[in-house]
Fold each of these.
Amino acid sequence: KQEVTQIPAALSVPEGENLVLNCSFTDSAIYNLQWFRQDPGKGLTSLLLIQSSQREQTSGRLNASLDKSSGRSTLYIAASQPGDSATYLCAVIGSARQLTFGSGTQLTVLP
Amino acid sequence: EAGVAQSPRYKIIEKRQSVAFWCNPISGHATLYWYQQILGQGPKLLIQFQNNGVVDDSQLPKDRFSAERLKGVDSTLKIQPAKLEDSAVYLCASSLEDPSYNEQFFGPGTRLTVL
């Protein structure tokens, strides 16, 4: 059974800092990995999707990498802003063709 | 492009009562999902539809939960009777046909409180 772990559970950084969020998964046989953002009381917003054949994806200040063989992904946020404060979730789709989520990292960017 | 719509946004009921949630996916999305998200956890898949048919309902507590997708578009999720542990956010998502390669787009969710 696929398990997804996100470390740390919570992170607080000053504005302007670059930061990395970590995601690991136990079964490397995945089709893709998605990073989501969730604001309090809101649904999930898709940030980046990395197919299993890809190594990374970039969108603006966000860069996500994927190392399938080691079962790891990182989300890099450059020049963090208070508006980046949210919970970041990673999820993988494996052979069961369903998303398995981690518990998320709660990010606070201090002005 | 309109996103995934859900209603109601909030619902408070007493245990043993019944409740229903509605979802309208993004136009043209064949696959629809219902997730349960308990506070502090990631979403957990309850049921997945492909057009009208159920693809996976292995984690749906079928003694109290039911779901249907009429005409391959809108979907309803029902809980009857509700228990305290059903308090959670219920998220609906949709994607193009093959979930292996396509992003899932989520609605705002329905926050259910069972007293």
Note: Chain B has no helices and eleven strands.
Amino acid sequence: DVKVTQSSRYLVKRTGEKVFLECVQDMDHENMFWYRQDPGLGLRLIYFSYDVKMKEKGDIPEGYSVSREKKERFSLILESASTNQTSMYLCASRRDRFTEAFFGQGTRLTVV
Amino acid sequence: ILNVEQSPQSLHVQEGDSTNFTCSFPSSNFYALHWYRWETAKSPEALFVMTLNGDEKKKGRISATLNTKEGYSYLYIKGSQPEDSATYLCAPLTGGSYIPTFGRGTSLIVHP
């Protein structure tokens, strides 16, 4: 089975902190994604990576950056956390553009 | 940002009822459509990957149809059970993009 693992299930950070959300997949998938999920808004794409060191901005990239130095790991970085970044963050991966995505368990981030 | 509509937003049914949901999306440059089930405290899991106009997919009591010309897909659940309670998400890959855009989901609650 494909496994997508996010480093934390729950996280509380202070405003202004730099925050790293880590995601690792174990199936050699090419593509990886970061989404955030807010009540009533559904899953919104923050960043997408189609290969190592390759990334594309999604619909809501402002305030975020990403890093993909190795194929299995895709990190989401909040450069200076703000309260409006309090959300559920979901990482996903897929083998290629022809296949479905596999999701991590989510990280519920609270910025205080 | 693509406009992906799912209806209804939420649904309460009794055990044994059959139900269906709708996903509508822009039909221009359609590539594929995914359906996911997202149970509380779990990760979203793929139900179906659909690509062809007229596609019908089935998994147990759950089935889905696809109309790419008019831009909609239906998900049917026959004889709903409490374990079917979840949020059902559709994610078309359309408008020339190979990145799935998620609808806001339909929340289904099946009462015993």
Note: Chain A touches chain B through 25 residues (CB under 8 Å).
Amino acid sequence: DGGITQSPKYLFRKEGQNVTLSCEQNLNHDAMYWYRQDPGQGLRLIYYSQIVNDFQKGDIAEGYSVSREKKESFPLTVTSAQKNPTAFYLCASNHWKTPYEQYFGPGTRLTVT
Amino acid sequence: AQSVTQLDSQVPVFEEAPVELRCNYSSSVSVYLFWYVQYPNQGLQLLLKYLSGSTLVESINGFEAEFNKSQTSFHLRKPSVHISDTAEYFCAVSDKRDTGGFKTIFGAGTRLFVKA
């Protein structure tokens, strides 16, 4: 079955530690996205990548970093510089033929204490 | 800049009653409109979309939404809800970026709670 996988489902870290969230897709999609979801705020775009080895900052990129070395993978690192990292993180992707329509992974809930 | 407003943060409704979840967006030349549904601790699933053509679009589980260009709205309706419809619903708008590709803006979400 084609889809987007995110791992782990739940992640716990101590303040001051960097943490990397995984996102893999086997849909042969070109573009991939990372969103952050907080209660009552909808989804906010962190980073996106339209092709391999290229990515762009979204609306709230500070304290985050990404890489896109393979078409299938778009990992997100939450650095210690992110002031309020506890949130639900969603990865999405789309095909170049339908660039306006995104497919979502199941999400990773990150808790930093 | 594009914006999406979901007018109700929570909508409680009794089972088998009708429901409307409201969504307004800021004007643009042409946009694509979406409703997504999210169950607790899961990702978003596409419920229905308007790309062009008929202004009334339907989903397989009884939801429908109507694109109203003059009112810049895309309200979601269901004539009779089930307990299983309890979830959070997000309205989203995609339009073209100046730098290429599309940007999607999401509303803050409406939590639908269906009571027995």
Note: The radius of gyration of chain A is 13 Å.
Amino acid sequence: QQQVKQSPQSLIVQKGGISIINCAYENTAFDYFPWYQQFPGKGPALLIAIRPDVSEKKEGRFTISFNKSAKQFSLHIMDSQPGDSATYFCAARPRGNLIFGKGTKLSVKP
Amino acid sequence: DVKVTQSSRYLVKRTGEKVFLECVQDMDHENMFWYRQDPGLGLRLIYFSYDVKMKEKGDIPEGYSVSREKKERFSLILESASTNQTSMYLCASSLQGFGEKLFFGSGTQLSVL
């Protein structure tokens, strides 16, 4: 089964720092790469997404960097805040339904 | 505001019981999905539906079935619950097909004893 490998499993960052979460995929036919954010007791919510025709997408403090040749993409959270503490899931779509990574639990310390 | 509602937040059932998890969306979305979420395993797709009366198996359909009699409602059925089905179950819907912009419910934490 095709996989999306996400790292790290958990991450602790100081307030104001940069949080970086990485994902790698296997199949070059993947055509859509979203990131979902999940707070405790809630379902995941779409945070930001990118398609393989661009190398970077920025929305506020959140940026996706995409490296097509390496089959990797990452989420950068600039000026991380305690309110960003959540579990983050990357996903990739192989022209079918999404395949999710296993998640990264981010804790931002004040 | 967009809403996906799951009928129960917590559910405790006995081994062998038939279990129904209900999900309703108010966005007139064509597509609905059931995922289970387990620590360290992420989100895994159980079943999905792209239209009323239509259903397709996801990655882990064994031990589950679904029903979609109306567009807004998608039910997950555990015919005979087992302890390895203890998990968080998440329902989602989307307007476009193939995983574009999923809206998730808050989940049902099912414990099978």
Note: Chain A has a mean pLDDT of 94.
